[in-house]
Every structure is written in structure tokens, then in C-alpha cells.
Amino acid sequence: RHYQPALQAGLIERHELGEHLDSAIAIADSAFALQYQPIVDLATGGLVAFEALVRWPHVQRGMVLPDEFIPVAEESGQIVQLGAWVLERAVADTASWQHLSNGRRRRDQRPPLQVNVNVSARQFRDAGFVDVVRETVRNSGIAPGTLILELTESVLMRRDERVRADMQALGELGVGIAIDDFGTGYSSLSYLREFPISILKIDKSFIDGLALSQQQYALVEGIARIADTLGVQVIAEGIENTDQRDLLTSMGCPLGQGYLFAHPLPVDRAVALVRGDAEL
Ligand code: C2E
Ligand code: CA
Ligand code: CA
Ligand code: CA
Q1: For residue 256, which of 84, 165, 236, 246 is within the disulfide window of CB 3.0 to 4.6 Å?
Q2: What residues does the EAL domain cover (predicted)?
Q3: Which residue, among 215, 202, 191, has the nearest Cα to 253 in the 3D structure?
């Protein structure tokens, strides 16, 4: 045992994190928070949607990042409960913001603000998932089409009957489905034919090299063109500089997200954007 102290320490740490997570999930409203990162129309700079990103401010641990606790919650199954909380909170916030921006929207004829919510593979596989989405949307009163569920390719890879049936049920509900981190997993453009996918999010790793490598540029342009042909929208992730933005605009990529426009924002700053009290 003593020759693997690091591994042992890691296991104990994960175990403790899992127990802390349990207590946090029991009081989710006061233990977790959501931040909202703007998704913008690259041509106009206008706000189109927010991606909800969960945060866990912890007294002893400081701000625990999702990359640290989401994998633990996935492994234990706690993500089912936590994910349901994220969905409910994000949809409730969005319902109030759509209300806030109604007057402004009618004047400039913008479509209602959308919200993107991350769904982990483990959460999607839970038998109650589609019902949770249906109930949450119904209770909130938002138009189903303004909710976008972000799934990774690992969900679609299975291609079994359950996945098919659930994807179809979500499609019939009218919620949008985005493939997150597109290009990093077992990417297959055939997913776009097989499932009711409305959005592709091109992973940051492709955007990073956009201005530096012609190959990278050609790849992103190709993805954008195929998506466009199939009527699937594209969001470029992790845009950090104007060179990247300009290249994406010139290839006709409609939507983007990244530190160039905004970091994930606490709720009050997101509200200020929606009200028009702050600009991007
Ligand atoms: P993701 O879904 O790919 O989210 C994008 C991550 O990239 C976020 O990190 C965001 O803050 C960061 N990001 C956005 N723009 C930029 C940029 O221009 N440069 C750089 N360097 N980073 C950028 P975050 O919030 O730490 O989340 C990390 C991951 O944790 C997410 O990756 C997602 O997979 C997961 N996650 C976050 N919230 C949730 C949630 O509520 N449910 C689930 N299942 N997973 C979540
Ligand atoms: Ca995401
Ligand atoms: Ca992503
Ligand atoms: Ca990611």
C-alpha cells in the first residue's frame, strides 16, 4: 500500500469530495451557483444565448471548478441530481430574463434569449432524464425551443435504442440539441443525419490554431459549410482574439463564445446585459 501513496491520497481525496458534494446537493440552492457565458452573433456582436456553467464556492476548498467535481459526480451518479438542479435554475433564470427583455425585443425584433445547459452522458442515460426536461420546461413556461441541451459525442456513440428513443423524444419536445466539444471525441458527421441535432459547438482546440495553421482553418471552414448545408447552426468555442473572430466571420460561422466577448458572468452581470444596462 505504501508504494502508491499518491494514488491512495487521490482516492481518499475523491471520496471526501464526493461526501462534501452530497451535503452540498442537499442544499443546492445555497451551495451552488450558476454563471452565464454569453454566446454572440459574430457579425453583429449581439447577445443570442447564455451557456449556464455551474460553480461550487466551498468554505474550505475555495472555488471548486467543474472540471474537478463534475467527473466525481458523474462517477457516483450524483450528477443526476445536480444536473436536474442546474437545469431547473437555468431555465427559471431564463424565463425571468425573457420577460425582462420582451419590450426591447419587440422593438428591435430579436428572437427570445436562449439558454444552453450542459448535460453529462451519465445524466442523459438516467431513465428519468427526458421526463425531468419535459417537466422543467413545462413548469417554467419558456418556449421549448429556447432551451438548448449540450451533449457530448460520448452520448451519441452508443447508438442504442434507448439513445435513439430519448433523442427523438427530446426532438419532439422541441428543445434544441447541441453537440459540445465537437471534433474532440469520436466525431462523426453522420450524427447530424441520425439525430435531431440543431447546433454544433466547435471545440476551442480548433479555434486556437485558426490563425496559425491553414489546415486548421480548412477543417473549421469545412465543418461550418457542411453544418450549414444540413441546416445545423455552428458555435465556435473559446474565441480569445479578434483575428480568430474575423476569420470565423469571413468563413460564415454565425455564432461564437469566448473570453474575447465575455467570461462566464455572475447572475447580476448577466441581468445587466439582458436589461441593456451593460454592453458586451
Ligand atoms: P464546456 O462545456 O466545454 O464549457 C466551456 C469551458 O471553457 C468553461 O469552463 C468556460 O469558462 C471555458 N471558456 C469559455 N471561453 C473560453 C475562452 O475563451 N478561453 C478559455 N481558456 N476558456 C474558455 P468551466 O466553466 O470551468 O467548465 C468546464 C467544463 O465543466 C465544461 O466545459 C463542462 O464540460 C463542465 N460543466 C460546467 N458546468 C456544467 C454543468 O452544469 N453540468 C455538466 N454536466 N457539466 C458542466
Ligand atoms: Ca458546454
Ligand atoms: Ca465545450
Ligand atoms: Ca469542454
Answers
A1: 236
A2: 14-278
A3: 202
Residue type, 18: G
Ligand showing the shortest atom-to-Cα distance for residue 70: 1
DSSP 3-state assignment of 144?
Answer: helix
Tell me the residue length of the chain: 280
Gap between the Cα atoms of 206 and 216, Å rounded: 6
C-alpha cell at 16: 471526501
- In this predicted model, what pLDDT tens digit does every residue of 185-194 receive, in sequence order? 777 788 888 8
Q: State the distance from the centre of ligand 3 to the C-alpha of 181, rounded, in angstroms.
A: 4
Give residue-wise pLDDT tens across range 203-216: 999 999 998 999 99
CA nearest ligand 1 atom 42, residue = 118
Q: How is 257-280 classified by DSSP, letter by letter?
A: -STTT---B-HHHHHHHHHTSS--
Q: Which residue has the cell 473559446?
A: 238
Q: How far is the CA of 17 from the centre of ligand 2 (A)?
A: 23
Cα distances (angstroms) measured from residue 157 to each of 151, 160, 189, 204: 11, 9, 12, 21
Listed residue (219, 277, 278, 279) closest to 248, CA to CA: 219
Phi, psi of 48 (to 5 degrees): -110, -40
